[in-house]
Records
---
Amino acid sequence: MNVVPTFAGNGARLDTSRLCVCTDRIQETSDVVTLIFECVDGRSFNFHAGQFITIRFDWNGEQFSRVFTIASPPSRPRRIALTIKAARDGKATRILHDHFGEGATAEIGEASGEFTLEGRALQKALFLCAGSGITPFMSMLRSLSDTGSDLDICFIQCARTPDDVLFEDELRSLAHLPRLHVEIVCSQASGASGTGGRLDMAKLAELVPDAAERSAFLCGPSAFMKAMRRHLLELGVPAREIFEEAFGPAPSDAIKSAVGDGQGGEARSILFQRCGINRVAGAGETILDLAEAAGIHVETSCRMGLCGTCKVMLASGAVDMNDMGGLSDAEREAGFVLACCSTPTSDVAIDL
């Protein structure tokens, strides 16, 4: 049995950020870039492999805040690498991809997230990723390589075309890890290396015949994650052994779809105390939805209940907070909620 070594840090989100400078830029593919950052004050970063950070930067007088998973390992703490895909309609990612390079500065917050190997007793692992979902796994693999791990890992990266494959050369170079098996599956392969066609259950069973014996870690677009989880369950992987890190639609959309008329259509009164603004929330509307509609600024980033950027103080009332771990226990006890994923279940007052 392998117990993954624990690096410094406890994984808790802190309300601090550091001024950082970009020291290098690596163009991975036509629309994916890796930016390397170091702290201006020379301090080291403190994180677990697989965790994410919030990066904040100004561009032409406009402020941006976004969440990215760290791609570099905690065993090299003097710098962090963020591998960023320029989204077609994403202004912030397009700025980072097109304009950030050596000398650019940004504020980077403390790392957070539970999608890690830390403290887990693993015998065999399966890493399944698509697109930018590879980043937490690169941090994990680089860390395991640095520590000389002999963990049995089957790694599968799914991409659209061979040109979209990320870190292929480095993955092949990690062959010195004695029990690492790498597979690349391209849905539109054209005679290049890797397996062609989409990763369905039959192909997954062929590539990982002992899937039922492995702890599975998934990261990628929501449709990919949903399909892979279903395949893994059908292949006999226990639900408790499937760990996921998702990125996809804003939680307000997901919550509205899931909640529907679950509150019976009853309107809730929302008072933004410092602004003196009252609004009425319908079924499924979040505090963030109401604040933005009223023109009240709430700093936000992931919009998925992950990063904790949009935390606000609930002065009175109750909410249903459908979060993904963005608050610490101390923050919850203090009365904070996440605006992006909190829907009122009574009349509420918010300290804004």
---
Amino acid sequence: MYPKKLSGVYFSVMMPRAVLMSFDNHNLPSVTIYTDGACSPNPGPGGWGAVIISTSGQPLEICGYGGTTTNNRMELTAAVEALKSLDGPHRVVLYTDSKYLKNGITTWIGNWQRKNWRTADKKPVKNAELWQQLLMQSELHEMNWQWIRGHASNRWNERADELAVAARKGGTKSSRPARQAAATDDAIHLYTGVTYRHAIKSGAWSVILIWRNHAKILGSRSEGSSANQLYIHAVIAGLESLKKSYPVHVHTFSGYLHEGATSWLSGWKKRHWQTREGNPVSNKMQWQRLETLLDTFKVVFHLEDRENPLCYMLEVKELAKEFEQKLAK
């Protein structure tokens, strides 16, 4: 169900409008964008999300944390960042469930400009700097702004909302947008998430598996395990759930899992499952189980940046928390 990625490169917002008008609009690539913002409470912690669908590639998902903000600011930020992600002028249809965004960019903004960014009652326009950014970005493209009713079972609108909520809950400090990893049609992406409380030695794991337009979610609560064990178990569970031997990309925040699978495992096997110091390898049975699966599947491990996480890494972390809370009741 969930989409994957289209490559995106930032395009300069300083190109003069006269230059833009020289482009042949008949040759512009087309793209459809769905954006959403989330804030709870309002004002309070916020997030934004966007799904960018190209006719020539796989969809791109981007999202980001907004800090203490408002819902309107997140709606605007989602549109700004989505347009920034495009590699040059496009013919864009942008769907939003925010009438504030739709009316602002199509109706109100002309009067605001003429009045030097003042409202009809001569007060400063709220969020003026974001409106100005959005105006500059939109002038790079042939825009078609569409309002869509929120939570009305539109697949991509709901996905943009999910991304915004996940980014709000994830609370990343980075100002850069989180993105989805590149995916090919014959590759599976396996995202791992773990939550763990050392005081009671309890936690939960979750995985999201993405293949083409299909998704699978797995997870469970665990007592008496360490965080390292939960990360290994998450990958094992994900790989064991696969019915076909496609290439697999594993995404994780765990340096222990990443280094163990990519660097330490071969040495442990040569030393008969002992460390360089001659001690037994911790979590030996789990590593042996994983090692058998790595012989079956072609697996590439990716150590992800916590400060600039992929959207699914935010989401799988929240799913792990939900598994812990639900199964603890």
